[in-house]
Amino acid sequence: MHDSATSSDDAIKDGPFYLHAGQRADIKRRSQVWWWRLEIPTWILGFVVYSGWFLLVIHWQQLNHWLAAPLLVIFTTWYLSWQHELIHGHPTRWERVNQLLGTLPIAVWYPYGLYRDSHLQHHRNERLTHPEEDPESYYFSEAHWQHSSAWFIRLIKIRNTFFGRLLIAPALDIIATVKGALQAVVKRDYPAIAMWGIHLVLLVALLAWVQQHGISAVYYLLVISYPALSLTKVRSFYEHRAAEAPEARSTLTEAGIGWRLLFLNLNYHLVHHDLPGLPWYGLPQVYQADKEAYQQRSQGYVVEGYQTLMQQYAATPLDVEIHPFYPERPGGDTVTVQLEPSSITSDVGHDYAYQNESS
What we know:
Helix content: 55-70%
Shape: globular
Mean pLDDT: 87
Distance between the termini: 14 Å
Number of strands: 4
Order of helices and strands: EHHHHHHHHHHHHEHHHHEHEH
Strand content: under 5%
Strand order of the largest sheet: 1-4
Structural class: mainly alpha
Number of domains: 1
């Protein structure tokens, strides 16, 4: 581990990014507290998510469905947030243990391993929002956009409204996921095929079990799982933007306590991308300690709550179409704009470097 002046690209790409040495020392101090070190909040979270979901299903036939269904949607959404924590090394440092904790296909639509691999690729901050290299980008290359049909462009413009994102984006994600699974079969990608095989076997068993408790598979897919995936789109609606500086591509959203708990504080998204190994319960403390610095670092990319996005973009689409900083060469190849390096104190190392320091 070392402190050095380096470019923002290199610092973010390879490991945690600290604003200053004092922040690094403060995080190390916090992580030495027993309940933080043992990840007690994350273990409690996992227990609440699993027990809440299972209890709702087990007692489904005794509950008012108008109340139970929304609660089941919330717990399924919470499970997706729990999976995100697992991907980033919580509550254990052992990847296989975390995978075991997140493999149950409660959220239905994709295997945990696919989510993990795709999301970690998304965390290459120097390629964040790149239409072809960031798997979570909503942007398009100029060539793709120009060769798209008129109906597809209209569909994307609807998708780029707040309610369009909730209604349409999950379906587009599911279609892309199924397409990827079929390509894995065609290409004989045996690890991917095995991953999908395990996922589908577990999914069939899970849907059969929920059906025994009065929830049909179709009902679960359409009324529970799809809305849960839609709910995650509230968080990701304007989570990233096209900007020349990588650190300005992630938002800071001043969300209410309910949203923060549901999304495990990922509204502080710039902090998460700078310190991807920081547990969810540490994000608010770190943000509040250096609030002005983070807001300056994001170049003012601060949203005053998700309701602001809903009001502003209920019918007006976001300008998330052709990526402005990845122009096309005459031959159609994407050109990555070279960014000017900025000096900043950083710690380049493993995603969970602060955990290793505190052990």
